[in-house]
Design a protein that fits this description.
It is built from five helices and five strands; from the N terminus they run βααααββαββ. It is α+β, with helices and mostly antiparallel strands. It binds coenzyme A.
Length: 126
């Protein structure tokens, strides 16, 4: 096991709140159906949406690319039964993970009143 890259991202919660309010396609353009189901279970709280957005950007950095060669919906951040974020990959990002021998992508999310932050780590096979 080895670390490929790490990534971090910070998001202004109000910016995400406004994006959701102004553009009714924002959620479906950026998040998968399962992520939207999770937000629904949280009454579409802006901090949870911003936390998932930060998670996707942090994960994109932990691939060393940013959001490039794959899109936001190729990253899915759900929660396990304890509330811990779990990362799944799809389409071109899933292919990249196979090419890079990625074992797992871990992410941690936090939010305060104004900001959401996420930290990601991509773990590869030696
Ligand atoms: C990399 C990216 C996720 C940065 O997110 P951001 O919210 O714009 O900016 P942040 O302040 O969070 O991060 C900037 C830092 O990311 C880091 N960064 C830049 N490219 C990176 C990469 N390929 N991998 C990891 N980290 C990267 C740099 O440290 C940068 O800070 P610096 O310019 O002072 O060195 C984003 O710009 C991106 O995905 N770019 C790639 C392609 C693109 O432009 N797509 C259109 C966006 S939808």
């Amino acid at each position: 096991m080895d670390i490929f890259e790490i990534g971090v991202d910070i998001v202004e919660i109000d910016r995400i709140k406004k994006a959701v309010e102004k553009n009714n396609r924002f959620l479906e353009k950026v998040f998968t159906d399962k992520e939207i189901e999770y937000f629904n279970s949280k009454n579409f709280k802006s901090e949870s949406i911003a936390g998932n957005f930060a998670a996707k950007e942090a994960i994109s950095k932990s691939m060393g690319t940013g959001i490039r060669m794959f899109n936001f919906k190729d990253i899915e951040v759900l929660r396990n039964e304890m509330g811990k974020p779990i990362v799944k990959t799809y389409n071109n990002l899933a292919k990249m993970c196979i090419d890079y021998n990625v074992l797992e992508i871990k992410v941690s999310i936090s939010h305060s009143k104004d900001y959401a932050i996420a930290n990601a780590i991509t773990i590869i096979k030696d």
